[in-house]
From TrEMBL:
Highest taxon of the lineage: Bacteria
A GO term from the CC aspect: plasma membrane
Organism lineage string: Bacteria, Pseudomonadati, Pseudomonadota, Gammaproteobacteria, Pseudomonadales
Signal peptide range in chain numbering: none
Chain segments annotated as transmembrane: 12-43
SUPFAM superfamilies with a match to the protein in the record: ATPase domain of HSP90 chaperone/DNA topoisomerase II/histidine kinase (SSF55874), Homodimeric domain of signal transducing histidine kinase (SSF47384), PYP-like sensor domain (PAS domain) (SSF55785)
EC number(s) on file: 2.7.13.3
Catalysed reactions, as listed in the record: ATP + protein L-histidine = ADP + protein N-phospho-L-histidine
Domain called Histidine kinase: residue spans: 211-428
Protein name according to UniProt: histidine kinase
One Gene Ontology MF term: ATP binding
One example of a Gene Ontology biological process annotation: cellular response to phosphate starvation
Record InterPro entries: BphY/WalK/GraS-like (IPR050351), HATPase_C_sf (IPR036890), HATPase_dom (IPR003594), His_kinase_dom (IPR005467), HisK_dim/P_dom (IPR003661), HisK_dim/P_sf (IPR036097), PAS-like_dom_sf (IPR035965), PhoR_N (IPR021766)
Species assigned in the record: Marinobacter similis
Amino acid sequence: MQYNWSRHVRLIISGIIGATLIGLYLGSPIYGFTFAVTVYLWWTLKQTGRLYKWLGNPNASEQAPQSVGLWGDIFDHLHRLHQTHLSTQDRLRAQINRVQESTNAMRDGVVMTNNRGSMEWWNGSAEYLLGFRRTTDQGQLIHNLIRTPAFKSYFDSRDYREPLEINSPAKPHIHLQIQISLFGDDDRLIVAKDVTRLYQLEQMRRDFVGNVSHEMRTPLTVISGYLETMVDNAEDLPPKWRRAINTMSAQSSRMEALITDLILLSKIETGEQTVHDSLTDVEELLEQICRDAQALSGDKQHQLSVQVSDRRLLRGDESQLRSAFSNLIFNAVKYTPPKGQITVSWFSDRDGAHLSVKDTGIGIDPIHIPRLTERFYRADPSRHKDTGGTGLGLAIVKHVLLNHDGALNIRSSIGSGSEFICHFPRERLVERVPEKTDSDA
Ligand code: ADP
């Protein structure tokens, strides 16, 4: 390029000098010089015009204009640059097409939106699963098309660690699991997975457990009834039967407790027992439960104390809350040695309302904590025989809290007691309405 450039400059200067010399030979060097400069200027303007026209629409003719000399070189370079640009463009377009084809082939629905939720692109499965239409929905806000309120709050929350499950807005029999990821300039990639089969299987499992428990309850009540009568009249029985009858009666009571918990858990899980948003007086509820806990403690003489620092009411299902709180408090009694301390506190802060049940009991090895809320999971299986627990208590607590938008937190270590904390969102706290006195009337 450097070589060509100086050669071109030399050629132009030689041309002008040559024309000036011819002018000198003809008697007027200035005419020769002016003629050469004018011709060069005219030629340069002509080439600039061609270049200008081609740059205005380079795709009309793939070939850049042809010329000689300096302009020829400039046109050649521009042509090469244009060719490289075109092939890069083709390669990128092929890559985009390939990505779009592969996402189109996916069974999951994929949608791209900007930070406000305006729809930019979606694949074929999203059209089928979510009912989007390419002709009308481009640029629409996604919450106007998926109108479930849970979806809008999930989209706005920006906390996408857990997926959301909803029914398809277009085909309500399809159950979808929605997962959002953030990318680019706060844009969203939304993946919708059809989990209908899994959901139905889970539903069948819950129904089966619920139905079996119901069916078992009646025969068991009859057996327990007869066993109780026999225990009451144990003196009339031959001594070798007494022990057997007492064991059978204790085991049938355990089975009854198990069936009661299974039925309760399946109701809470299936949503059959939907949250009846009544206003619960937590202070009163805790006092009632603690009276029962004191009775359960019996001659073990646990020191039970209740501290309530927030007197507002809790919006939620009182019977579900009673089950959850009593499971935690009764567990504290069961797993704390005689004369141990159990502290139940109800308080609130910026994050919401919290119930803490703290004991000075045997504690739990932290490796068990993540699995404690699974059904029938026991930190120490050898011990549960003494406590007579069903193994479903913490599973019930977890589901009750889920139904109340809450969460359970467990802190414990072997030998230094345990603390179970239930968290409820602030929005569930409701001010007490002052009771009307006679003087107000
Ligand atoms: P269970 O009916 O066996 O008590 P839960 O679901 O209520 O079943 O509790 C699960 C397990 O968690 C228990 O078996 C026990 O090992 C452990 N656990 C629960 N609460 C406590 C506590 N306060 N202290 C020590 N361990 C506990």
